[in-house]
Amino acid sequence: DERLILQFQITLYGDDERLLMARDITRLHRLEQMRRDFVANVSHELRTPLTVLAGYLETFSSYVAENGADRLPPRFARGLSQMQEQTTRMQNLVNDLLLLSRLEIDQGGDDHTPLAMDALLESVRRDAEALSAGRQRITVEVEEARRLIGSEQEIRSAISNLAFNAVRYTPEGCQVTLRWKPHPQGACVEVEDDGDGIDPVHIPRLTERFYRVDKGRSAATGGTGLGLAIVKHVLLRHDARLEIESRPGRGARFRCVYPAARLAAPESVASA
Ligand code: ADP
After folding, report:
1. Measured in whole angstroms, how far is the alpha carbon of residue 204 from the centre of its chain?
2. Would you give the distance in Å from CA 221 to the centre of its chain?
3. Tens digits of per-residue pLDDT, 169-223?
4. What is the distance between the alpha carbons of residues 270 and 272, in angstroms, rounded to a whole number?
């Protein structure tokens, strides 16, 4: 690739003076591309060995269960369940890394169709409820009839990440709401909770890879630290933006704002 990549900056001084600066960022651009490819390749290569490990661990643990778990020394039994837990964690991490690098590499935009958001939110709600196991109350509110034009897989993964976070980071008895509603610029998906919220100093950095407010607690929740980075990239590919509002002690609200150009008329009911 012989292209030269230049970055221009124009500064205005008073009425008639301009300063034009050009910077050669070819090398920077190439390095960034190499980093992305490297992460994508490594994550892809790690998937097969992890699948084999997970498969054998599953076989061992069902063998142990069938032959009486008490015949295995307790520390081996503990070790086995630890190995399974950590293998699952590594698989989640590798899948998220692969998804994130695909989102960064692909231009996207081909498999975009109008999505019925009531059904999509309802299906995310069911998954979040399984994760919550009754600890939170999760509801869906639909105040917008238009459909969102986008990739179903990506949009679902963005909303799921937000909903799962709301479940993971709020205490028992909290309320989580998934909403599709009109917005002055188009329409938005909101995921709101009334949990402990996030200290505003952390908000600007939340979408960075592996950025976590509380390292210990986040690792224990099973998150990968990549959830909000994935959300950010999905939104970028859909011309949308993420707004995060929170007051500590009063919960958090994550809003994905989609422009009007991304909306399609409601599905017409077939007339007789
Ligand atoms: P992960 O959840 O895997 O750690 P994310 O990128 O999804 O990574 O989230 C980054 C951090 O943002 C989390 O570690 C958590 O500290 C914070 N966070 C996200 N959502 C919420 C929420 N609804 N309430 C409180 N904190 C949150």
Report:
1. 16
2. 15
3. 999 999 999 999 999 999 999 999 999 999 999 999 999 999 988 877 666 777 8
4. 7
pLDDT of residue 221: 75
Prediction ipTM score = 0.98
The residue to which tokens 């060995």 are assigned? 49
| Whole-number pLDDT of residue 223 | 81
Protein residue with its CA nearest to atom 1 in ligand 1: 225
Distance between CA atoms of 246 and 228, rounded to whole angstroms?
Answer: 15
Convert the pLDDT of each residue in 116-157 to its tens digit.
999 999 999 999 999 999 999 999 999 999 999 999 999 999
Q: What is the torsional sign of CA 218, 223, 224, 228?
A: negative
- Ligand 1 mutation pick, 95, 206, 211, max ligand atoms within 8 A of CB: 206
- Alpha-carbon distance of 264 to 147, in angstroms, equals 5
As for ligand 1, residues whose beta carbon falls within 6 Å of it are 161, 165-166, 169, 193, 195, 198, 206, 211-214, 218, 223-225, 227-228, 252
Closest Cα partner for 224 from 174, 173, 129, 160? 160
Atom of ligand 1 nearest to the CA of 230: 6
Give the pLDDT score at 239.
95
Q: What distance in angstroms lies between residue 217's CA and the mean position of ligand 1's atoms?
A: 10
CA distance 227 to 254: 13
Gap from CA of 199 to ligand 1 centroid (Å): 12
CA of 244 to the centre of ligand 1 (A): 11
112, exposed or middle or buried, with CB in 10 Å at 0-12, 13-18, 19+?
middle
Please count the other Cβ atoms lying within 10 Å of the Cβ belonging to residue 138.
22
pLDDT-derived band at 1 (thresholds 50, 70, 90) equals low
- How far is Cα 73 from Cα 255, in angstroms, rounded to an integer? 50
